[in-house]
Amino acid sequence: MSARKTTTLDPPEISVENPIVYSGEGQEAMLVCIVHGESQPEVLWHKDTMQIDQTERHVIENRGARHTLIIRKVHPQDFGNYSCIADNQLGKTRKTVTLTGKPKTAVFRSVPNSQWKDKYNISWIVDSHSPIEEFKLYYRLVDGETLQTHDGIFLDSRKIHHSYAGDNMLDYNRKINSYDSYSYNNGYHNLHHKWSKTDWRDIVLPAFPYSHHYTQGMSYLIRGLEPDQQYEARVQSRNRYGWSDFSESFLFTTSNTDTEIRDLSVTHYSSSRASVIFASEIRCLLGALTLIALCRVGSF
């Protein structure tokens, strides 16, 4: 006699396509959840505690297990947390999707090795539907093999990969210049703090002029670094809706010697010095010729 097969029925299961959806005013936003269940569940969308009904701006679609809330011509009040709620006779399940106007996390585009021993030109790009108003750059000297992130997580620096995407410097420059990059040599930070070598330093960089491009770039020359050392950097971006999350950690290394001319004024000074030496030699030669001429006149 065969045993009867029993089936355990469970509440619906939900997964979200993107837990954070980035958008901007006047843009379209698409929030998607995937719903699975033994019996066909009813799926509703809520913003905070209010149920969302189908309107001209709020379009609710479902194709099989895929349930979509489309928000057309996004308004500032549309930003916030949305719940995808699946309900059947076995139970109720919900997942949250956040619609935000904040910038995405920045991605570094610098080559990992500096050309200088005491400074480094760091560059990154960030996607944002609204113009970036300012950046906050954090950097510090890496002490030993292990580094600690802003989130308190310890990582082996040998397992961190650089975010540079490009086969050579020409390709790197082409990528940066195509993103409306704007370079600054001036930031501001707390000059009265007494730093230890491995403390985080933070520099606030105003993003001016504003760029209305979706992808925005930034470049900053960090000075006063130590030769032949490894540094860790992270960055945040802010637009009118707030600060982005921290970028992933990026590691760069200073050189033990400068590999290019540090200052064009050196060439200028060298040229001036050469001119002075040449003029001095001419004066000496004229003086000698004058003395010879006077000697010949005196001998007559």
From TrEMBL:
Residues 12-100 form the Ig-like domain. The keyword Repeat applies. Keywords: Immunoglobulin domain, Repeat. GO terms for molecular function: axon guidance receptor activity. SMART domains: IG, IGc2. PROSITE patterns: IG_LIKE. The keyword Repeat applies. GO terms for biological process: homophilic cell adhesion via plasma membrane adhesion molecules; synapse organization. CDD domains: FN3, Ig. It holds the Pfam family I-set. GO terms for cellular component: axon; neuronal cell body; plasma membrane. This is Ig-like domain-containing protein. It comes from Anopheles dirus.
